[in-house]
Specification:
With about 190 residues, this protein is of the alpha/beta class. Strand 5, helix 4 and strand 6 form a beta-alpha-beta unit. Helix 5 runs parallel beside helix 6.
Length: about 190
């Protein structure tokens, strides 16, 4: 999956026209994800349809009903921040969504480099149809994160950037290598 950030206040923000070009150039089998923060259903629908993304990741106060509405048209990833109010059991209310567990920052929404609460993410696993672990992951810690949480997928942003919004190709390769090594290690331990 490749995230396309439609949050205007993010250093990773991408305009519709550029996002559409990226989607059109993506190889078969790679899914584009539209990332939205505090957007309305109408905004999400308009941008996702214009750009031709089939999956949306939503950050903010999205109710189960709103997510169900979006899930009629898109694969929905509902993001949760692991602040002191986070209750893993509440993610079960979003049964039509994949769940992304991220770190909490009082102001910023994602891409902070802060590490999420791995035990809270692990407690979410039995309640989520598909769990994505995010928050402060990089090539040095993703193997530990995978072993601790056993998510279905991991999400990386600032952990593979040279500066906010600028991806470092070497860091991406190192991250993917670390994830594959962790997957092999987990498979070997199950054998």
């Amino acid at each position: 999956m490749v995230g396309l950030n439609f949050y205007p206040r993010s250093p990773r923000y991408v305009e519709r026209k550029v996002a559409r070009q990226i989607v059109e150039a993506m190889p078969h089998g790679v899914q584009a994800v539209g990332v939205f923060v505090d957007a309305t259903v109408e905004e999400i629908r308009s941008i996702a349809n214009a750009v031709r993304v089939l999956c949306v990741q939503v950050h903010g106060d999205f109710s189960p009903e709103t997510c169900r509405e979006l899930a009629r048209e898109f694969r929905v990833i509902r993001a949760f921040r692991t602040d002191r109010r986070f209750q893993p059991k509440e993610t079960a209310l979003f049964s039509e969504c994949d769940v992304l567990v991220d770190a909490h920052h009082p102001i910023l929404r994602g891409g902070t480099g802060l590490t999420s609460d791995w035990p809270a993410a692990r407690a979410t696993l039995p309640r989520a149809r598909f769990l994505i672990l995010s928050g402060g992951l990089n090539a040095q810690n993703v193997g530990q994160a995978i072993a601790a949480v056993t998510p279905h997928a991991v999400d990386v942003c600032s952990g593979v950037e040279s500066t906010p919004g600028i991806k470092d190709h070497r860091a991406i390769k190192d991250f993917v290598t670390a994830v594959r090594l962790a997957e092999r290690s987990a498979a070997d331990s199950c054998s």
